[in-house]
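Lab notes, practical 5.
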Amino acid sequence: MPHLPQTDRSGKPIGPDALGSTTAPLLESPYCRRCRRGVSIRINGLGVVTYQHANKRGDNGDHDPEPVPVTEIPDPIIECDFCSAPDAAWIYRCANQFSEHRRVTTRVVSVSDYRSRHAAARVRRTDTEHAVTQAWGERWPACHGCADLIEARDLYGLIRRVVDALPAKLTRGKHLVRVRGELHATYSEVFDTLAPGRGRIIPGHPLGIWPGTETTS
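Output from the prediction step:
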């Protein structure tokens, strides 16, 4: 599933303790049975696990995800987890990442500032609370272009490629700095924890054929 920047996502990946008290099993590499596309895993503050389509589009906007492991999907549509290009060719493994989404509960302004500026009053303090944790998983499919940059460990080249592929609304104006920073944090963690080798995605082997094996891994 494409790992696109989230407007309410914290700036750095967080650890697995962010899952809190959830005991629900998490599907590995979940895909939707109906549209054959990747879905993302989200855990709320009560530990309840839900799934949502990684990308909203015309062929999945009319139904809720029906998550199953990708190995149960005939001919899954595997996109690059980096630039969202179709037909991912390789799959990499790294440490699982989790990111926390928070919601604003309180904005505090000074009384005098509010009296003079009203809705334009400067916020002195913002309080937030945990809303949901997203689990990104350990497997990252990549297209040929992104895979070449990963093999070269070209972090900034990968960030440039992904930013160029993002919708303009995510990179316009001040959003660009935030998005680049978020991608830098996420991809640095990917590079730092990459497992040796990579799997080659071919029909019938959505988890890849890995060096020295003839089966999915």
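Observations recorded by the TA: The two ends are 18 Å apart (CA to CA). Confidence is low (pLDDT under 50) at residues 6-23.
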